[in-house]
Amino acid sequence: MAYSQKLKAGATFPNIQVATLDGQLVTLGQAAGDTKWQAVFVYRGKHCPLCTKYLNEIETYRQSFVDAGVDIIAVSADSKEQLEQQLSSLTISFPIAYGLSEQQMKTLGLYISHPRSDQETDHNFAEPGLFVVNEEGKLHVVDISNNPFVRPELGSLTRGLAWIKDPENNYPIRGALDY
Predict the structure, then answer these.
(1) 74-108 residue pLDDT tens
(2) What is the pTM of this model?
(3) Is residue 121 exposed (0-12), middle (13-18) or buried (19+ Cβ within 10 Å)?
(4) 101-154: per-residue pLDDT in tens?
(5) Residue 59: enclosing H or E segment and its boundaries?
(6) Which of 31, 85, 112, 177 has its C-alpha lying 20 to 30 A from 20's C-alpha?
(7) What are the angstrom distances between the C-alpha of 72 and each of 111, 114, 122, 123, 166?
């Protein structure tokens, strides 16, 4: 039986670079601007209407992420052309990247699926994942799913991140116990 390696809470987030539509190479987990944390949303790709809906929903919480001091980026294994086609269905202002390789998906410990048909997509793709990386480059929050129906509720997530980041709460990284 094969086992996938999952990233451990509190571990240093791996160095993974992907491209954005403007041709920039970005390193996932490295916040832009004044923020020191980053939420990395991995989505299945253009073929997934639930992903498109979720990405648009993230946009409605963008200010809550900003208020919590958390940068946002989304990424999939889609090609540049597939992402360009999906843009007409998106109403987002946060960065979105493409070209996540299968090896990068494995490094992140994501579940990976084969397309059901050529009409779905032309490549293996990652199932949804969320990685929140703190100012030390450590994985502070992780949520991965093996299907598109289970994803973090964004209101709860943004309120939780604001609470975690409040120094008065002194909230540690959870789930980091070795066993």
Answers:
(1) 999 999 999 999 999 999 999 999 999 999 999 99
(2) 0.94
(3) buried
(4) 999 999 999 999 987 877 777 788 999 999 999 999 999 999 999 999 999 999
(5) helix 49-60
(6) 112
(7) 21, 27, 27, 25, 19
- Cβ-count burial of 165 within 10 angstroms (0-12 exposed, 13-18 middle, 19+ buried)? middle
Rounded Cα distance between 89 and 62, Å, is: 18
Task: Quote the CA–CA distance of 11 and 138 in Å, as a whole number.
Answer: 5
What is the token pair recorded at 97? 């990247």
d(Cα 171, Cα 179) in Å, to the nearest integer? 21
Q: Which two tokens stand for residue 178?
A: 């070795």
| % of the chain with per-residue pLDDT over 70 | 97
Structural domains present in the chain: 30-164 (3.40.30.10)
Element (H, E) at 42: strand 37-42
